[in-house]
Amino acid sequence: MHELPVTQGILSVVLEAAEQAGGYPVRRIDLVIGTLSSIVDDSVQFYFDALSAGTLAQGAQLSFRRVPATLTCWACGYQAQVIAPLPDCCAACGSPHILIQDGMEFYVEAIEVKEPNDARSDCEINSHQQ
Amino acid sequence: MHVPIVKSILTSNDQIAAENKAMLEQHGVVAINLMASPGAGKTSLILATARALPAALRPAVIEGDLASSIDAELMAQNGIPVVQINTGGNCHLDAPMIRSAFPHLPFGAFELLLIENVGNLVCPANFALGAHLALVVASVPEGHDKPYKYPGMFAAADVVVLNKVDLNEVFAFDTDYFRRGVQMLKPDIPIFEVSCRTGAGVAEWTAWLAQHVASLTKQPV
Q1: Model's pTM, two decimal places?
Q2: Distance (Å) from the alpha carbon of A39 to chain B's nearest alpha carbon
Q3: Cβ separation of A13 and B147 shorter than 8 Å?
Q4: Number of CB pairs < 8 Å for A and B?
């Protein structure tokens, strides 16, 4: 619902880091987004392509790493990865005493920049994602 | 070359939010960010809260709205200092909008600032404003499953007010189920059950609020 300010945020963090790293073109941007965080979908790439035109990040590929939320049962210790809508009890023992953690991540983890002597193609750079 | 960063996507908003908070603290003001769906009763809760608080804590209000000034007019009619922000269709308030409202606030004449965010259970949770407390207002007609379906919003809350509890029976609202949904995200969070229409629970909520504001002004964060 707010792809534009999110994309502007990504671009401003990335450009600052790219300048500090020597001003080389950015080829890939690694984003970490929790599954409970507000949805950042492929339309961000669309906005990004428009906003980054003429900058060091023009043509960079956005890579999303989704972090699941974790359910922990207070009663039996069972743990599981969950997404919304969240369960209201433990799948293992049925206890309603559960805790949901993580899944709210929302940050730029790293960028991949291409130095002049880097012979790799963009495709190779983007296929080496962690 | 791999360049590690690890920085919030909304770093520039967060920086302005921190400046807003510092500015508020210079003036001895505690700010609350009210978030809720449209129609949950944010405006009604602000009016009921303003009436019930002791005179020294009478709040000023920043009204975030997509376009209209209906809520702001209602505040002004009730003698509450109010600044209207029209987001022009934006689904949330952000820190620069709050900063731009500051010059229009009568600093020195109030200690509590209530910021009514745009009605929305998704986007406002991501955008820090510089407030000291995030208040999520839920309401009975929305259904008891909201914490399960919109966990991001409830995970961002410091306190929850459940409004319209006079309608519990009409909507077969399962308060226990609602509370568990909030508490599995935030185990120790205070949850107040109120009805702005009948006034039920408002005294408990405002007593807690007054105490919380006092503790924050004595020990600035």
Answers
A1: 0.91
A2: 9
A3: no
A4: 114
CB atoms within 10 A of CB B69: 14
Q: What is the ipTM of this complex?
A: 0.84
Could you give the CA distance from residue B85 to residue B68 in angstroms, rounded to a whole number? 9
Cβ–Cβ of B151/A100 closer than 8 Å? yes
The domains of chain B are located at 13-134+146-154+202-214
A105-117, pLDDT tens digit by residue?
A: 999 999 999 998 8
- Architecture of the A3-68+103-127 domain: 2-Layer Sandwich (3.30)
CA separation for the pair B82, B107 (Å, rounded): 12
> SS3 for B136?
strand
* Residue extents of the structural domains in chain A: 3-68+103-127, 69-101
Query: Cβ separation of A2 and B91 shorter than 8 Å?
Result: yes
pLDDT at position A36: 87
Q: For residue range B134-190, what is the model confidence (pLDDT) as tens digits?
A: 999 999 999 999 999 999 999 999 999 999 999 999 999 999 999 999 999 999 999
CATH number of B13-134+146-154+202-214: 3.40.50.300
Cβ–Cβ of B151/A1 closer than 8 Å?
A: no
